């Protein structure tokens, strides 16, 4: 029995080490890997895929944006949100109502969708700026329920349970973008790229360093002069704006939305992807969305049991790789410029010179 356990432990360690080497190799050659990925993505429509396949890719893009937005809260700020679909919903409804009722073009309503998500983030942020941990999780869940009830009962504005229909699609030079002509596919690639760049800019800025300091030790961040409450609110507002962007895109692509489109299952799916992909990892959000959104579509017979499968995957991840697929990369030593040594390395280098 002991030998079996030891061999199993060695096998899992070898598998983990091999996976670490693979991810390190990809990250080391990211200047080649990223352009190659874009070449593959650009080539997909020219291979003649079905409209259904293109729609699945668009859904992966939508959830990539959503997980990138939640990653700002959960991955970098270290807070749990269980009602992220509410911000997604506000973005979708702001854009859909203006387009359907007032006839505004998509290129204008998408900005109102971003504004709607940001406004929801501002309300949520101001309500929770003194909270953290389980208290914040419960408040976000309650906020999502409030938004859903307002959508269902404010019939004069939201059309209640009947939802919003005939949402206009975007047009470029008089050509309507659809999944059939690949227009939505190209658009979602652009939106995901923008979301990735925004996330990178935030993380690598003074703002991002302050947010990560709150995650590591909020009290220490306060003592260092970080206005933690303000940074929490700003992070949730930015996250809401990105979720609103995804909502506006999805509403236009689907052409119909109702309150059930943004239910609790959506919030749990987003949270599962963030944990599965790796908290604080931007590439992890893309890979996690690809795997967990494509899975129910590939295995349609198991689509009704996707949360059972998601749960088993998360249990497996917590047991063998608790940081997620690409999580924990931020814990690796920071790569210093060429010629710059760390304190310990400097002592060794000076000792080597003295020996010589």
UniProtKB/TrEMBL annotation:
Q: Which is one Gene Ontology cellular component term of this protein? A: plasma membrane
What is a single molecular function from GO for this protein? branched-chain amino acid transmembrane transporter activity
> Where, per UniProt, does this protein localize?
Cell membrane
Q: Which PANTHER family match?
A: HIGH-AFFINITY BRANCHED-CHAIN AMINO ACID TRANSPORT PROTEIN BRAE (PTHR30482:SF10), HIGH-AFFINITY BRANCHED-CHAIN AMINO ACID TRANSPORT SYSTEM PERMEASE (PTHR30482)
Pfam families noted in UniProt: BPD_transp_2
Keywords recorded for this protein, A-Z? Cell membrane, Membrane, Transmembrane, Transmembrane helix
Superkingdom of this protein's organism: Bacteria
Name of this chain's protein: Branched-chain amino acid ABC transporter permease
Q: Supply the source organism for this entry.
A: Candidatus Avoscillospira stercoripullorum
